[in-house]
UniProtKB/TrEMBL annotation:
PROSITE patterns assigned to the protein according to its UniProt record, in alphabetical order: HTH_TETR_2
Gene Ontology biological process terms in this record: negative regulation of DNA-templated transcription
Lineage: Bacteria, Bacillati, Actinomycetota, Actinomycetes, Pseudonocardiales
Residues in the DNA-binding region annotation: 57-76
SUPFAM superfamilies according to UniProt: Homeodomain-like, Tetracyclin repressor-like, C-terminal domain
Superkingdom field: Bacteria
Record keywords, A-Z: DNA-binding, Transcription, Transcription regulation
Species for this entry: Saccharopolyspora spinosa
Recorded GO MF terms: DNA-binding transcription factor activity; transcription cis-regulatory region binding
Protein name, per record: TetR family transcriptional regulator
Segments forming domain HTH tetR-type: 34-94
Pfam family of the protein (one): TetR_N
Length: 254
């Protein structure tokens, strides 16, 4: 899986695009009236949604829009800056309903909304965000999500750490889920079909006399999930256990 890096281009140009300041690409130059940053970004998202981030290029975006590649550079300096704006754009999709009264419910809702976002746009998991160039949608999302823990009596760094813990689990679980879906698509077999096809061989190899605990637990999990791993179960189980730990932490702070 190809990995791109947020902030991999010129951060100043990315910030100009994200916040739509006047010193962005194309300042002082006249471009096509039917083009613009928003349309180019939407085309990039559509390409990445359909074919993955590896398929994204300025030429591919231009072909998708039916324009010359060079016309894009009036608005967006390059692929790296385009990815920064694509990320911020999809961050704006997360639902922000009125917060539930229970902080556990609020954090669970945030986790599920991010889980859904990764599944709508799997290419997000191919962007390493270690030095993210922060845009308005990312800031608004962060501000809203921090509200879930704003009244728990935690210090600011603790609030950030709690949110990062929940979002980190969500990203990891979503990555496993997306990878399993991609394997199924490329192999033409569901996980359950694959395990059933190899069951005779596996039953001979996994000798319960030699591996008593693994054989017992593996059989129970396989029967419960219909495969070796159920991504949604792992995600939900992890969210609840993390919330249990946060609850203990919050109680200790009081």
């Amino acid at each position: 899986m190809a990995i791109e890096y947020s902030g991999g281009g010129d951060p100043a140009r990315s910030l100009a695009l994200l916040w739509r300041t006047h010193d962005g690409p194309g300042s002082g130059r006249k471009g096509r009236s039917d083009l613009g940053v928003d349309r180019i970004v939407r085309a990039g998202i559509e390409i990445a949604d359909a074919d993955g981030l590896a398929a994204l290029s300025m030429r591919r975006v231009a072909d998708h829009l039916g324009v010359g590649t060079m016309s894009l550079y009036t608005y967006v300096p390059g692929k790296a800056e385009l990815i920064d704006v694509m990320l911020d754009t999809v961050y704006g999709e997360t639902a922000r309903p009125e917060p539930e009264s229970d902080w556990r419910g609020r954090l669970a809702q945030i986790a599920r909304e991010n889980w859904a976002l990764y599944h709508r746009h799997p290419w997000m998991l191919q962007v390493a965000a270690g030095r993210a160039v922060v845009g308005p949608n990312a800031i608004a999302k962060y501000d809203y999500e921090l509200g879930a823990v704003a009244e728990l009596g935690l210090a600011e760094v603790e609030m950030d750490s709690v949110l990062s813990l929940v979002l980190g689990h969500t990203e990891a679980a979503a990555r496993r889920s997306v990878e399993m879906a991609q394997v199924e698509q490329r192999s033409g077999m569901t996980d359950e079909q694959w395990w059933r096809a190899h069951a005779p061989l596996l039953s001979r190899l996994l000798d319960p006399q030699r591996y008593p605990t693994a054989a017992r637990v593996g059989a129970a999990a396989g029967e419960a999930h219909g495969s070796a791993h159920n991504p949604e179960h792992a995600f939900e189980f992890g969210v609840q256990r993390i919330l249990d730990g946060i609850e203990t932490f919050v109680a200790s702070r009081r």
